[in-house]
Amino acid sequence: MNTKPPLGITPRWFLDEEREAEIWRAITRYTEAGYPIPMEWYQELDEIIERLSPISLYMKENDY
Q1: DSSP states along 13-59
Q2: Rounded to whole angstroms, how far apart are CA atoms 56 and 58?
Q3: Is the pTM of this model over 0.85?
Q4: Could you point out which of 34, 38, 47, 51 has its C-alpha 20 to 30 Å from the C-alpha of 19?
């Protein structure tokens, strides 16, 4: 019998870090092209930054 559990899901913090980088890249592209930045992007960045706050990062590093 195999005692190792099956592969689970990607941790939320990892997805948040990738999404944050993606949003910043899009903001750069829009800025360089002279387009206004959608407010939703800033709102999502705020949510992600809140989740990635130092307390959240502590939990990530300590497998909480």
Answers
A1: HHHHHHHHHHHHHHHHHHHHHTPPPPHHHHHHHHHHHHHTSHHHHHH
A2: 5
A3: no
A4: 34
Scored b (16 or more CB within 10 A) or e, 5-28 reads eeeeeeeebeebeeebeebeeebe
Reading the block at residue 18, the tokens are 């990738």
Residues of the domain holding 31: 12-61
Q: How many domains does the chain have?
A: 1
Token digits for 23? 């949003």
CB atoms within 10 A of CB 44: 15
- For residue 37, being part of any structural domain is answered with yes
